[in-house]
Design goal:
7-stranded antiparallel sheet, 5-stranded mixed sheet, 14 strands, binds zinc ion
Length: 372
């Protein structure tokens, strides 16, 4: 079975390489913002809105005169940025359509890319080679990798490489097409999975995945640094330093969370033949839920996304329960339903007397849906 996947790892760059990468990211950001402005101007003037190909042609012509600095970077960087812009508009028009058909979505017009959140990223295609300790990219040459042997050196077809900066660190994400063995139809059990706030995921067989302990302390540190930044005077060197520390802390939280999610979703899709998940309306919960922060930290969307694609790799069907399925309210033993407050950690059934951890009760209810 042929699959597409990405491998992301940190780069170990010298100052010259950092400057070159920053220049590429700058070119990508410039092209994106320039293209966005061109599209908006054309629309405002009632002219034909230029496509990615039109914009690419126009930009190439400008390169010969006022934008000669673009010769210093790979031609892919601005070109791919214009493709991204086209994608952003495609998503925008799709959301407009969805909104018109009555769906509750935020339309969100494509926005300019600012340097506020770091230097950004750029994507390269063409001659890309991976070695044990380095990756070779067009124009940038060989860039050292911090972790050896993570990127695949053979057996894959490389499609592109995206280089990005976050918190002062540089990363490369390699997009590849690769062949993996077709999933074999083994006898594997099925399970219901309840995504929680106290525990990352409770499985109906009684096992569970904890939120990593490191996440809590990393979050505390993040909050503290956020306060430090807001206290520092704008434009001061001390504030800049605090902003850099904050970006690092953000990165750490995101990494801890991602690692934990990957472990859980790999383990689940490899050991189960079907999984039933709760279909939470995550975006609605985020808006008006006091636990929005905690929910965001568990990364429910990411959890679902990973389960879906890994399910296809390892032969595990992933199902979503109906949004109104009362997984928390229902007793998994007798089917009686009652209101359960968030504070109640134990589900106590007045009807049949069952007492059970509330998340486990919910997970068992979800599993039972698979037999319907
Ligand atoms: Zn009961």
């Amino acid at each position: 079975m042929k699959i597409l996947r990405a491998f992301k790892t940190e780069l170990d760059l010298n100052n010259q390489q950092k400057t070159a990468c920053a220049r590429h990211a700058g070119a990508a950001r410039f092209a994106y913002n320039w293209g966005l402005a061109r599209k908006q101007a054309a629309f405002a003037n009632g002219e034909k809105v230029p496509s990615a190909i039109d914009l690419h042609r126009e930009l190439n012509a400008l390169k010969k005169s006022e934008l000669s600095w673009l010769y210093e970077v790979s031609k892919c960087a601005p070109q791919e940025a214009l493709c991204d812009l086209e994608q952003a508009f495609a998503h925008f028009f799709r959301r407009v359509k969805e909104k018109k058909s009555g769906k509750n979505v935020k339309v969100g017009f494509p926005r300019i890319k600012s340097k506020k959140h770091g230097l950004g990223s750029f994507r390269l295609t063409g001659a890309i080679h991976v070695f044990e300790k380095a990756i070779q990219l067009p124009r940038l040459g060989q860039l050292h990798l911090k972790e050896r042997g993570y990127l695949p050196t053979s057996g894959v077809h490389i499609l592109s490489a995206t280089v990005s900066e976050k918190g002062g660190c540089w990363f490369v994400s390699l997009q590849v097409a690769m062949e993996i063995p077709d999933p074999v139809m083994e006898e594997k059990p099925v399970a219901g999975v309840d995504l929680g706030i106290n525990r990352m995921a409770q499985v109906s067989d009684g096992t569970y995945f904890e939120n990593p302990r490191a996440l809590k302390s990393a979050l505390t540190k993040l909050k503290r640094l956020q306060r430090v930044v807001s206290r520092r005077q704008k434009g001061s060197a001390n504030r800049q330093k605090a902003v850099r520390q904050l970006a690092k802390a953000h990165l750490r939280v995101a990494n801890i969370r991602k690692d934990a999610l990957h472990q859980a979703t790999t383990s689940l899709t490899k050991t189960k033949s079907a999984i039933m998940l709760e279909n939470l309306n995550v975006s609605a919960m985020m808006q008006n839920h006091p636990l929005a922060q905690a929910i965001a930290d568990v990364g429910m969307y990411e959890f679902r996304r990973q389960l879906a694609y890994k399910g296809a790799w390892y032969g595990c069907e992933v199902w979503l329960a109906d949004r109104f399925f009362p997984s928390t309210k229902r007793c998994s033993q007798c089917g009686n339903e009652k209101a359960v407050s968030l504070a109640e950690r134990v589900y106590a059934c007045e009807h049949c007397g069952q007492r059970m951890d509330r998340d486990l009760n919910a997970a068992i209810n979800l599993e039972q849906l698979l037999y319907c």
